[in-house]
User: Which sequence fits this backbone?
């Protein structure tokens, strides 16, 4: 089986869905966010500070991309990350590409549930992070993060349980396999 990429904005459910897929498909799960967090720690910065720092230092994103590209090229992996689908697409690496969408208020609620904090503070942090990422991806890669045309499936997770999201993914994968597209 080729790899699977899964991306989405913070709180959209990518990690939860990736973990369920990992169990169902018995594939390793690699989370690019962990690599980014580890790099931020190495630099002694918060995620927000590191994101701003990365806006002026494209070599950091490039290093992270190379790692993701190598992981995808090995195949048989679930790679979770905002750019994972684009890395697969741009490098011609076969993968089933998933993008998860979700209403902002629901994403804020989910992040608060996971990490704590006040609603407006968490919303501000998420918006700042998304703005920084959108700028970096546009400036460094000429990627419009609103363009979901490269994905095999786009799912709005706002009102559905993670298990239902996984069911939709499995159905789409089965459909594509039967058509010889996966």
Assistant:
């Amino acid at each position: 089986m080729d790899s699977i990429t899964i991306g989405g904005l913070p709180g959209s459910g990518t990690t939860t869905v990736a973990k369920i897929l990992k169990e169902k498909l018995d594939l390793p799960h690699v989370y690019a966010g962990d690599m980014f967090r580890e790099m931020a720690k190495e630099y002694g910065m918060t995620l927000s500070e590191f994101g701003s720092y990365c806006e002026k230092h494209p070599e950091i994103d490039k290093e992270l991309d190379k790692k993701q590209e190598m992981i995808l090229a090995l195949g048989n992996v679930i790679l979770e990350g905002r750019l994972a689908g684009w890395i697969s697409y741009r490098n011609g690496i076969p993968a089933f590409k998933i993008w998860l969408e979700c209403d902002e208020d629901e994403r804020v609620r989910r992040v608060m549930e996971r990490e704590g904090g006040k609603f407006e503070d968490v919303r501000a942090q998420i918006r700042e992070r998304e703005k920084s990422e959108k700028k970096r991806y546009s400036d460094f890669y000429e990627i419009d993060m609103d363009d979901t045309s490269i994905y095999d499936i786009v799912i709005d997770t706002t009102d559905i349980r993670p298990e239902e999201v996984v069911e939709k993914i499995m159905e789409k994968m089965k459909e594509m396999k039967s058509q010889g597209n996966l």
